[in-house]
Write a structure and sequence with these properties.
The complex is a heterodimer of chains A (605) and B (374).
Chain A lengths: L12 E7 L3 H12 L7 E9 L4 E9 L7 E5 L2 H5 L2 E6 L11 E5 L5 E5 L8 E5 L2 E5 L2 H4 L10 H10 L13 E2 L4 E7 L5 E7 L1 H4 L11 H17 L10 E4 L4 H12 L4 E7 L8 H11 L3 E5 L2 H15 L8 H12 L4 E3 L4 H4 L6 H9 L10 H7 L8 H4 L2 H7 L9 H4 L6 H27 L4 E3 L5 H7 L15 H7 L5 H5 L9 H6 L3 H7 L2 H7 L6 H6 L9 H19 L18 H9 L1
Parallel strand pairs in A: 2-4, 13-14, 13-16, 14-15, 16-17
Antiparallel strand pairs in A: 1-3, 1-9, 2-3, 5-6, 6-7, 7-11, 8-9, 8-10, 11-12
Helix pairs in contact in A: 6-19, 7-8, 9-10, 9-25, 10-17
Chain B lengths: L11 H6 L27 H11 L9 H44 L2 H10 L1 H22 L3 H14 L20 H4 L5 E5 L2 H9 L2 H5 L2 E4 L8 H9 L5 E5 L4 H4 L1 H4 L12 E4 L4 H6 L6 E2 L1 H8 L3 H4 L4 H8 L2 E2 L7 H16 L18 H4 L5
Parallel strand pairs in B: 1-2, 1-3, 3-4
Antiparallel strand pairs in B: 5-6
Helix pairs in contact in B: 2-3, 3-4, 3-5
Classes of the chains: A alpha/beta (605), B mainly alpha (374).
Chain lengths: 605, 374
């Protein structure tokens, strides 16, 4: 069966069970769970049981596209399950078995194994109910099975610190996420207890400093060019008949991907965001790259009107709360690309691999650490600050009962495994940490979610194991040179792109959120973040939105105001769209029903 | 007076009976407003705690002793000003009442209105006069709060309640701090050079270097021990942006010129932006805490001719008269916000001569407010 020129249709998700409970019961619950799925999804059910081991399993694979058969059932013979069976796999790129991102398998010994690749491009969730394990590629698939869900406060606190929920937590207490780069094996003991073993995959172990550090710049450039071409080449199978999309930000990473695709003879259509005349847009650079490469560029408007219209759909598509301001613009980008193609490429992971500009403040912080008026900060503390979210503002953002409950939690615990050893060179530590945290827990899964919501496969050539392993054998001096970040990538790309694109300083594509919040979105804030809803939820202080915009949160000023507000907004939107919370009422004890100029005049007075 | 610890109100007799402690929880009061020596104004613990809370923005920002002293004086003056306004209102009301009565008396020949009513008002005037005198004394008292007195208050407060966000006195390290090559090999895109060590300390403590990925140093070589390393790192960037941050002082107005000297940044490719406060801007600020001293007047006489040419006659006269306005007269929030805005503004190609005065977040350019991508 071929879909869009692909040799075999790949699933877009799955949900299943494995356990010792009666299969009829688990099967019925599985059918109940999938009853909530969209009627446009095509489902394939498989079930099996092993009397000797007393274990049964069932899985529903979910495909996009209309089908007359809403559900096709396929019952496996008992012998097949004992030979080892793949229950579900998912590939964000759509390349199937050569590029699996998550998998669930029943092993020959009857145990269940699942895992996620280290780049974290697709999530995997699970929960235990009695003597059954339930697993799914989306959180919302499992929600109907949880009769009374509770918000996980550690997950909520983690979200406020990082703008994503750190694995293995999920916002729902009963459901856990499999961390990226981890394989877990489960078996039932004779007493009926679940025994679980977790181990870090070898690929992640390779993300540490190699004993030999390459210093020769010419050799490094040569090797990197070869590796980049190979990484792109590995992503060229099963392409659609028409053009493929490239999300072109105007920065170096996406430009490199676009250049290598055109060099490989792939028909490419570029997509870039336009935030309107007000923003520090990078659109001119995207135009310059597209013109240089001779590829068509579609500009996608992401202004308050479009943001407002796509907000709820974005929260639903993300499945988990992701608080970064860029998610809605990226949703719009995917939406636009989906009209033309089924595969998009992006430059995600370039910053993580080649030590982008976000590492610089940490180097500065390390230098000035000795001048700290308090105790010199530990590395994890400094790293935590790079998230620039609500960490350190707990008393000002949470209600007193929540403050009490999270008092014993330390967000550092969610950083430890990624930060590695003090013995490693600073830049390698930072790159590893950023790959495992900001990359694998935030940037990659949200890119996949937003693409999947539009029926797009997403390919990220910088998420390449071979290339990543190689970067750890490169001397730190080839990443940051003077004030130039990603030095070696720039050297490798200078023959492929115009010098203004390669060597310009990082400006960062800006989402002018604070400006929008004070202007076009001002009155919307009163609706989206109404104190009545915040009070009913009981987590946030009811007047937090106004406090943020009044500058009452000390260090959260300027553009950080919009970012902080957005984090809160995306949490609320996630509750409304994914959990199905209803708005609880309407309160007027907020400033957003007043004209903004009047509120400002009152404050000044 | 309310106890900071338990919030229970303690009357003077309670405080006296409990040797200055709270009758409920036993927490010691740091200040006893009734014990203030004339003409020094008295204030409560709650008043002082509010100062610290406001200055640190609920404990989020570090501040200097001088900033706290400026705020204390400003708040006490505001209190006095409120009293003055109330007395002026009472006085105005009395005068109006008397004028109306006299007018009625003249037109109607009513002696009661003409003479007796105004006379009955005399006790009120008698009450007003000493009140006005008391206020004048209070103003005098506020102006006499010297550094020694203030430090004693601080010390007492710290012993009883602590001030976590008050910056410690500047350290005097002389030995060079060893910096790992994996840090010192890099450079900075920009540096903020402050007129005073204490302002540099304040900016670093509040993470300006982290937010803007910039070096922060002072004219006199703060931070000691790291200064030479930072200068070496900066010299590695031929296209450095330098931000001169100063108050409206004789030293401040010449800072940008000083930074062109061979020991600093003589390379013409290095851009120097003046983020400081000019005398013109200080003169235009209505509520600025302008000070005057003979020492400042003497320093002003030595302003070089090249710098004098950049100042108007009014500005020069203002400085020669010994006037000056320090950066620490602004709180940390305002200082950080203005510096951040101006760094972002100049970094995005904005007008470098934009007014120094604080701009409300809502009114500033979206370019400055744009968030990062990803």
């Amino acid at each position: 069966m071929a879909v869009d020129g692909q040799p075999e249709a790949q699933p877009w998700g799955f949900i299943g069970y494995w356990g010792q409970s009666p299969q009829s019961l688990m099967g019925r619950r599985l059918r109940d769970a999938i009853a909530h799925l969209s009627s446009s999804s095509r489902l394939r059910l498989r079930e099996s049981s092993s009397a000797s081991q007393g274990v049964a399993w069932g899985v529903v694979q979910i495909y996009n596209g209309s089908s007359t058969a809403r559900e096709s059932s396929h019952r496996q013979a008992q012998s097949q399950s004992t030979n080892g069976e793949c229950l579900g796999t998912l590939s964000a790129s759509g390349l199937g078995s050569t590029d699996e991102d998550i998998w669930v398998r029943v092993k020959q010994d009857g145990s269940l194994e699942w895992g996620r690749t280290p780049f974290g491009r697709a999530p995997l969730y699970w929960m235990q109910q009695g003597s059954a394990l339930w697993f799914a590629s989306q959180l919302r698939y499992l929600l109907p099975l949880v009769e009374l869900w509770d918000i996980s406060l550690p997950a909520f606190y983690g979200y406020t610190c990082f703008s994503y929920v750190p694995t293995p937590l999920t916002p729902i207490q009963a459901i856990q996420a499999v961390p990226a780069g981890v394989t877990q094996q489960h078996r039932w003991s004779p007493q009926g207890e679940l025994l679980t073993q977790s181990h870090l995959q070898k690929t992640v172990s390779d993300w540490s400093t190699s004993s030999h550090q390459l210093e020769d710049e010419a050799a490094a450039v040569d090797q990197l060019q070869t590796l980049l071409k190979a990484a792109v080449s590995r992503q060229l199978n099963a392409l659609p008949k028409g053009p493929v999309g490239v999300f072109l930000s105007g920065g170096l990473d996406s430009s490199v991907v676009a250049a290598l695709l055109t060099q490989a003879g792939v028909e490419v259509q570029a997509y870039s965001l336009d935030f309107g005349h007000e923003a520090a847009t990078e659109l001119p650079y995207a135009r310059q790259t597209a013109e240089f490469l001779g590829i068509p560029l579609v500009t996608v408007k992401a202004e308050p009107t479009q943001i407002r219209a796509a907000l709820a759909a974005t929260a639903q598509a993300l499945d988990l709360p992701f608080g970064d301001s860029v998610t809605v613009p990226l949703y719009l980008l995917n939406q636009s690309a989906a009209a033309d193609t089924t595969v998009v490429f992006n430059g995600e992971n370039g910053d993580q691999l080649f030590a982008g500009w976000t590492n610089k403040p940490l180097i500065t912080a390390r230098l000035y650490n000795l001048m700290s008026p308090e105790q010199p900060e530990a590395f994890d503390q400094q790293y935590l600050k790079t998230f620039h979210r609500f960490y350190g503002y707990e008393t000002q953002i949470f209600t007193p009962p929540i403050q009490d409950e999270i008092a014993a939690l330390s967000p550092h615990q969610w950083l430890q495994s990624a930060l590695g050893s003090d013995q490693d060179p600073l830049l390698h530590r930072l790159r590893r940490a950023t790959l495992m945290l900001k990359g694998a827990q935030n940037i990659q899964p949200r890119a996949t979610q937003l693409a999947f919501a539009h029926g797009l496969r997403v390919r990220s050539p910088f998420c390449d194991p071979e290339l990543t392993r190689w970067t750890f054998s490169l001397s730190s001096s080839l990443y940051l040179r003077g004030t130039c970040e990603k030095y070696i990538l720039k050297r490798a790309a200078e023959t492929w792109l115009p010098p203004e694109i390669v060597w310009r300083g990082k400006r960062g594509m800006g989402v002018p959120l604070t400006f929008w919040c004070f202007n076009q979105l001002w009155s919307d804030l009163g609706r989206w973040l109404n104190p009545a809803d915040l009070r009913a939820e009981g987590l946030w202080r009811a007047h937090l939105p106004a406090d943020i915009l009044s500058g009452r949160l000390g260090g959260i000023q300027g553009r950080r105001m919009g970012e902080a507000l957005w984090l809160l907004l995306m949490w609320r939107q996630w509750r409304l769209t994914v959990l199905g919370d209803a708005s609880t009422g309407w309160a007027l004890d907020h400033p957003f029903w007043l004209p903004r100029w009047f509120w400002q005049a009152l404050r000044r007075g | 007076m309310k106890c900071l610890q338990c919030g229970i109100d303690n009357q003077l007799r309670d405080r006296t009976a409990n040797q200055g402690r709270c009758k409920s929880c036993g927490h010691l009061f740091a200040f006893e407003p009734t014990a203030a020596k004339h003409p020094m104004p008295g204030f409560t613990d709650v008043f002082f705690a509010k100062l610290i809370q406001d200055l640190s923005v609920n404990g989020a920002l570090f501040f200097t002793e001088k900033q706290l002293q400026y705020l204390l004086k400003r708040r006490l003056e505001q209190q006095v000003l409120r009293s003055v306004n109330i007395l002026n209102m009472i006085f105005g009301f009395l005068m109006l009442f008397i004028a109306i009565n006299i007018a009625i008396g003249i037109f109607t020949g009513n002696l009661t209105a003409l003479i007796i009513t105004p006379v009955t008002m005399l006790p009120f005037f008698a009450w007003l006069c000493p009140q006005r005198h008391k206020i004048r004394q209070l103003k005098l008292g506020i102006s006499q709060i010297d550094r020694v007195t203030f430090l004693l208050w601080i010390q007492k407060w710290r012993e009883i309640n602590g001030i976590p966000k008050l910056l410690p006195p500047l350290r005097q390290e002389t030995s060079s701090i060893v910096v790992s090559p994996e840090v010192s090999d890099y450079s900075f895109e920009r540096v903020v050079v402050c007129e005073n060590d204490s302002v540099a300390q304040l900016l670093i403590a509040n993470n300006l270097h982290f937010e803007h990925n910039c070096a922060v140093i002072s004219l006199s070589g703060y931070p000691l021990g790291l200064f030479e390393t930072v200068i070496e790192m900066l010299q590695r960037n031929p296209n450095l942006s330098v931000y001169a941050l100063h108050g409206a002082t004789p030293t401040g107005v010449r800072l940008s010129t000083t930074l062109r000297l061979p020991k600093w940044f003589p390379n013409p490719n290095v851009k120097i932006y003046d983020l400081g406060l000019s005398p013109r801007q200080a003169m235009a600020m209505k509520k600025a805490a302008v000070k005057r001293s003979n020492a400042s007047a003497r320093q002003a006489k030595h302003i070089p001719e090249t710098v004098r040419q950049t100042l108007s006659r009014a500005e020069l006269n203002w400085l020669l008269a010994g006037n000056f306005l320090e950066l620490e007269s602004f709180g940390p929030k305002k200082l950080l916000r203005v510096v951040s805005q101006r760094i972002s503004w100049t970094g995005s190609g904005g007008d470098t001569d934009a007014p120094w005065a604080y701009q409300d977040t809502a009114s500033i350019s979206p370019i400055i407010l744009a968030g990062g991508f990803g």
